[in-house]
Amino acid sequence: MKHILIIEDDPSILDIVAFNLEKEGYAVHTAADGEQALLTFAAHSFDLVLLDIMIPRLNGLEVLDSIRARSDVPVLIMSAKTSEEDRLEGLTRMADDYICKPFSVKELMLRVKVHLARYEGKVSGQKLVHWGDYVLDEQTGAVTKNGEALILSRKEFSLMLIFAKNPGRCYTREDLLLAIWGYDQMQPDDRTVDVAVRRLRGKIEKDPSDPRYIISRRGVGYVSGTGK
Prior knowledge:
Layout: E1 3-7, H1 11-23, E2 27-31, H2 34-43, E3 48-52, H3 60-68, E4 75-79, H4 84-92, E5 97-100, H5 105-122, E6 128-131, E7 134-137, E8 143-145, E9 148-150, H6 154-164, E10 170-172, H7 173-181, H8 192-204, E11 214-217, E12 221-224
Parallel strand pairs: 1-2, 1-3, 3-4, 4-5
Antiparallel strand pairs: 6-7, 7-8, 8-9, 10-12, 11-12
Helix pairs in contact: 2-3, 2-6, 2-7, 6-8
């Protein structure tokens, strides 16, 4: 099943695009602002991204630049900015396509299929992320260390992937809660993230009491290390 991320802050457009993609058999994830989009993108493996430009908390072009720094996944811009200058800027920033609003849903679905087919032919079948001694396969959810398989739950894999893709980046607990569990309102006694990190450390760290992959940052959250 192909996974598609829709980054759009207009609920009506988001709903109709998501509905039609799901009707075509795609797994759909959504984000309504730039920060949530990047967290979601880092936590999962996507085959295509549909991106609005005028979104809050990082605009679409900033999101595009960040995606391009780490992935060549197809990115299709959907925008009400229709001038030639706007279209050229989006394509210059390495978007794969630029679709002006309002658009035909049938045309959008066709463009999605075309770009998915091109991307599938481009990749070798594996999307591997290397992190210290570990190799994560985004397509299968498999993790190996020196060729030996590591057994993780789906959420443990998503949590590991978000750190593996961004060495050196600091994540708040709210960031991780939103990216992995889909909500960002933490209660004072909510230990969901801390418990998940502790369990993951127990599986990937040589010495969980002296972590090298997921490092605590007091008063902030967790930093992605290099494993060294």
